[in-house]
Input
Amino acid sequence: MTYHCGSLTNTTPLTNRIQVYNGGNMNSRNQQQIYLDFNASTPIDPWVEAAMHHTMEHAFGNPSSSHWAGKPARIVVEAARHKVATLLACKPAEIVFTSGGSESNNQVLKGLFFARQATNAHIITTAVEHPAIVKPCRFLERLGAKITWLPVDKTGRIDANDLRQSITADTILISIMHANNEVGTIQPIEDCAQIARQHGIPFHTDAAQSVGKIPTRVDELGVDFLTIAGHKLYAPKGIGALYMREGSRLEPLIHGADHESGRRAGTESALLANALGDACELAGDLSDMTRTGALRDRLWTALKEHCGDRVVLNGHPEARLPNTLNISFKGHVGSELLKLLPGVAASTGSACHAGRVELSPVLHAMGVSPEAGAAAIRFSLGRTTTAEEIEVVVKQLIALLTA
Output
């Protein structure tokens, strides 16, 4: 049976949407091409793509224009804002559309720093953050900010007590990622946010990897700011969102006209906002994560059974994203091993470090040796991953590792 994007709705069963993916992607051309790099980027969901085509035809105007061409675009943008807010269980007015996760993170870090104008500003973050947090923090250090980098244990988790002890009278922000992009470890955000609240300090979490995989309701997490990246949850690249708790004040990162209620200049893209809104609507259903987690566990269990101590798990064994598996293959270099699996798309770490053999900062912070770090491969599964694909990868890896 053939499924056409134009016939899909947001209630179309996931299995049917998977058939749409696989009906036109690389798997139909070569059965050995298997995508296991969903933490790097996801394909656009067929239903999201279909909605984008509709938006291009019917909402092409400037959302800020009051005439007949602008009003449909404004309606689309605000409807999308409501969908993002529904996923996070917050008010639509607390959602700011951005160009992606990096901009959202920069907006919080730089925006709060400049809004406070504090000469001795102190920011607390962790040693395992994405570069979109690390590099803005390094930039702010050059402007006089003091940054505390919380250590992590061997599983990649921080100790909330370390956070409590790091707070000073000058602390203006705490930023701790929800889930790590390389190893999938989930941080104790609720406990950390509670500590921040007790001290009256704004709390931010980079949830680019967790949205759509685990619950991310802002009041349950207790956060004041939360980052979303569209291309991590089946929306296009170039769109993201920042949750800003009502009453928060940030200096705009981009100055210009008063778009996004004065919080982010630049004409809103109805096309991209609509895509993110629809992707967030789909992401509200986490039921498929049970299936994805089972496939992830099948991959790990099979390798462990056949290879024993020659494979080592990087990350927390339980507090981990259900789709993520980071393994060190003893005696091998991860990038070289992947070359022997030419049809398998995976990563030797974060996608931002692809092609680099040296130990990633995340694995280094976890105490992983340079040899074990160079031997690491991250497999990240998604909605379209099938049991058959996992079996193929298992057989190929076992054949290479036991030869």
In short: The radius of gyration is 21 Å.
